[in-house]
Structure formats: structure tokens, C-alpha cells
Amino acid sequence: DPVLIDAVVRAAHGLGMRTVAESVDRDALVPALRRLGVDAGQGFHLGRPIPLDVLLNRVPDDGPVALDAPLRRPDH
To answer: Are 21 and 29 in contact (CB under 8 A)?
Structure first.
């Protein structure tokens, strides 16, 4: 429900918090969530579960991954 998502995003941002949409499983959800101001997302569309050793090889050694970068599907 876009009205509910908008209210939650506004409340979170008003409190200085960031928002994460869960269960992003379709391409069409990403632009809609961005328009509503959602900061990040997780779900099968953005990346399927992977083994821990593969994940650790994708995370840079020099710090956290930026969440402000555009969300894209991994090549793998």
C-alpha cells in the first residue's frame, strides 16, 4: 500500500532513520519504492541467497558497501 509505505518512510526520515524494503521480488517494485523515498531494498529480485564465502569475497576489505548506490541485480 503506497500510502502506508509513504507514512512509514516519512516517519523514519523524520527521526533520522533510513528505510529498507523487504521482499523486493519484482523489477517493477524498485522504481515505485524509490519514488516513495525508500533508501534500500532486499529480496530475491536484487540478489538470491549465496554462501557466506562468496559473500565475503564480494564485500570490500576497506569498509562498508555504500547504500546510496543504485540497486542492481548481481551478475551471478
So the answer is: yes
State pLDDT tens for residues 34-66.
999 999 988 888 888 889 888 888 777 665 555
Coil, strand or helix at 62 = coil
The domain containing residue 42 runs over which residues? 2-58
Total count of residues recorded for the chain = 76
The answer to whether residue 71 is domain-embedded is: no
**DSSP secondary-structure letter at 40?**
E
Taking CA atoms, 46 is separated from 4, 23, 27, in Å, by: 23, 9, 9
